[in-house]
Predict the 3D structure of the following.
Amino acid sequence: MKHNLILIITLFFAGTATGAEPIDSLLTHLDERISECLDDATRLDEGYELIQQALSLKGVEDSRLYPVMRFHEGTYYMGKGDVNHWKQNRLQLLQELPFEGWEEMSISVPQELGLICRREGKIDSALFYYDEALQEARRQGDLEWLAAISANVGLLHYNMSHFKEAEQYLQQGLEYVRQVDDPYTELCLLQTNGAVKVTLDKLQEAEPLLQEAYQMATEAESPDWQLRCLTTMMPMYDKLGLPDSSLACQQRGDALLPLLPQQGITAIGFITARANHFYDTGQWAQAVSDFETVVANAAGGVKTAAIFERMARSYAQLNRWQEAFCYMDSARIEADTLASERLTAQMAEFNARYQTMEKDLQIARLQTQRLWTAIAAIAILLLVAVFSVYYRMRRQRREAQMRIGTLEEERSRIAKELHDGLCNDMLALEMRMQGDGAAQFSDQLNTLRQQARQLSHRLMPPEFTHLSIHFLLRQLMTLTQDNTRLNVHYEAQPDDESLWRQLPPAVSHEVYRIVQELTSNIVKGATATHLSVSLQQTAPGHYRLTIIDDGQPETSMPDNSHDGLGHRTQQDRIVSLGAHLNTYRQDGENHFELEFNA
């Protein structure tokens, strides 16, 4: 550390004495040292100190390496597991892209935001950012990034049980990675692609992929990836009716298991597969033992309902009815609505046998249940009375929100249909046409696909927990300026991104939709030449939205026919916000002013 600081001071004063500008050469040296530190988990704090020293240098913001230092800062947060600061860093960089000379950030920044949203369970936003990264990687022709992002998107679909979509992206990623030297990504794609094909019962296609992946993992001396491959190969050979091959996979996995953390995802995945193998082959005691291990170390992604059901059935085969009843009850609670009736019936069977052995305990349970039923009935009556009063007071606002909710669900459905269906179908057709030599039609199809993709994003914008209303309105106005003949002006006061990000997402969403609808009306009217949109904070917690255009009032204002869908939807949004609307025409211009609170 001391050596680093002395080096900075020495270079700085050496540059000053000669009249040279040392900042770029100094940051280049620091970039190398920081990269070394961030690649070593034990030196992360040393790297962070160097980053802060770099960012504190005079004139650093004018250097071409300034974005790199800020990117390093986010990478430090990622390494430390500080997701909030990592996310904020990448969101800020996203708004400032692209950086001249650092085009790769235009891929890596949205790609990392996709990873973050995936960890947070915000699937739509993850897919949105992944798509942005894929589009930029295609534009730059970067095959390594195309392979890596395709792998991430495929894994995301796989974890959501969207197996056909997962297979498509993983196969695409495998084609990309075969053209570059990236063994780790290739191994990941081979193993995951094989796992998807096993799930889809494409066993003949899965086997060579998994065999190749296992061979690569063995040559790399990676017990983690060897065990991942064996975890998938074991059920594959069970389905193929090759018990000897399945047993060989189990025995190899048993030998590798002690080399890995017993509570890690890879180990738990193998134990789960082994438990299912024991269950399918009627080895009930071994299945119970493995299932208990899985449940005791359960992490996100473990399908507990299915595991609890299999545990219950295994205990039933061992005539341990009390455990069978308890685990079937747990399965019923975890299961979805469609499966609950079947599980409840099975639970009743186990419960009946358990009752014959525990009559006294059942009597006590029934007495307790009656007491709690009486208490619950009284509580429900009180709640109904309170709720009735509350409902009458808030009914108008709730009805408006429900109507808007229905509209938003339909928007979301259409957006997903466009994005996941039409856009992907056109992409496949475009790739086929390129292969057939019909380049002129391919270009037209690509343009059409981009238009459909833009419409999808317009119908379903990213969540406001990720982006502020200020950022998205600015983006909307830029698109309006680029795609229409309108002269568009947008401003926000104050122009502070962090302040607008504090606005509740529900409020931001309704304001965005109001602006989107009015802008659409103005564009469709085709009589306006200029459009001005401003967003102001008039006082803490109080805001004003102003929209001004010079079109004819009958085309620029919300539908004048009071039974029109646009008018009703706008009124519902205004009511749901508890906002005050003032519209008027002055000096040949239409004014729309909305006062609302956070």
